[in-house]
Request: fold
Amino acid sequence: MNGALEISGVGLVTQQQALDAIAGNIANINTPGFKRAEVSFSDVMARQADPMNPRTDLARAPLFSSVNAHVSIALDDQGIIESTGHQLDLAIEGRGFIELLGPRGEILLWRGGRLSIQEDGTLASADGMALRAMINVPTDAREIAVGADGSVRAIRADADAPVDLGRIGLVAIGSADDVERLDGGLYRVREDARVQDLTPDQDGAGAFVHGAIERSNVDLNAEMVRLMIVQRAYSANAQIVQAADQLMAIANGLRR
Reply:
């Protein structure tokens, strides 16, 4: 009886994680550069030693089983590149990231979106986080262009030829487990993870696409199908809890 409650309880927790991931995907379907979360399940079967008698032969220890849910980010799944024609829109076609300086000076990873020019001329993300490349745009710049290799050029008001302002670099991470997702299509690298500096087109880093935005890689139809499947699984586990509770109530009544 207790086993049924434990198993269904684990099922409820794992299905809740899946529901949270799907809800996050749907909520961010219009967030530029957003990468969807994927949930995978795995069966766990193990023998558990008795803490009161640690020398017990594990081969004779009771076998228990469970289900683990693992949430990962589909970082390598490219979103659609949509041309906007806006000179401050920037996308990446490939697996690379742009490095930003966060509010406390930490390094954050960004898949691009709309750039902004701060009061001091620093090129930054739309919410004001400066690019780590620290590119300064002249106040009289009338046109800005970013090449596929990340080179930034501007045409000043009194000139016809563009001037070089610097170059935006790309970095890559080893695994999606190396980053933590933040709001607004940003990612924070975990402390023990390594970030690799890459040049455009190196090891799949990709290239910059100026005047475009990468849409999220969320497929609404697929997410709705997953949502219905997970809801059914959650409902089935809830019914197991209810059935186990009813059986326990019957057993308690027999004792009286």
Remarks:
- Helices lie at 2-27, 220-255.
- The mean pLDDT is 86.
- The first helix runs from residue 2 to 27.
- The radius of gyration is 26 Å.
